Amino acid sequence: MQLCEFASVDAIASRNLAKAQETAAKLGIPTAYGSYEELLADPNIDAIYNPLPNDMHVPWTIKAAEAGKHVLCEKPIALTAAEAETLLAVRERTSVKIGEAFMVDTHPQWARVRELIDAGRIGDLRAMTGNFSYFNIDPNNIRNKVAAGGGALMDIGCYMVHAARYAFRAEPTRVVASIDRDPVMGTDRLTSALMEFADGQAIFTCSTQLVPYQRVQFLGTRGRIEVEIPCNAPPDRPTRIVIDSGSDPFGGGVTVETFPVCDQYTLQGDAFSRAVLEGGEVPVPVEDAIANMAVIDAVFRSGKSGQWEIPQKS
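Above: the chain sequence. Below: its structure as tokens.
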């Protein structure tokens, strides 16, 4: 975000001043604070990026908003849809911008995927398949702590839910899931889910204890789109999507589109900042964040019940 055209990173806060100063010096950030409260009290700061552990997203987003700061909050924006919904009243009361940091929405490859689907390049979208995994068994890592909102679904499965909703431009009517939890840490280490939409289905698997891998495919009645690196698009290498007409099982109907090097976090920072400066909508508003959390809630419920569950918002 230090490379943004419409924003600058002017301060950083930690609960430990020495750590804040060390990081500020390393990154060339002008000001370091030894508490989050000090940062929120700084009148020269317009907006806050909240990358705290998941259980701290809503509390500190609320505090930032009440301090008059716009907030770009990391995904998932909350622990539940109900918790996310509390941000609507806060946003209304404070008149600040609040957005969820699904940086993938700002990458050109995803804009192109939506453009191709909307243009009918693969016919009618009927299915999505997605995989996202890495291997991490460190019990001290925040991603492996249940109370902090850790686990595969919250950390990376949320991307798969978001991708399906993004492509279908709709909400799933019901979901069913299988969840395997780590016997010691209690987090979901392997989660698979099927989401049923009015026009098709989406299925994904996410894991914190599998080989590192990510891939998303969208299948239509007349073609297929594959996103090679859907989430962690590198900032120093081009990315690619594959478009397959399905005419040749050996790849004769495949075309590849390559996207120039870009940093999706820079693009996200600029998109959010422009919304603040120009009075527009942030890339992923609170309403969308609530809908995504409602699906995640339903996946967790299905993992317990073993039944189809309906995403619910109040």
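Residues 104-263+293-305 form a domain with the Dihydrodipicolinate Reductase; domain 2 fold (CATH 3.30.360.10).
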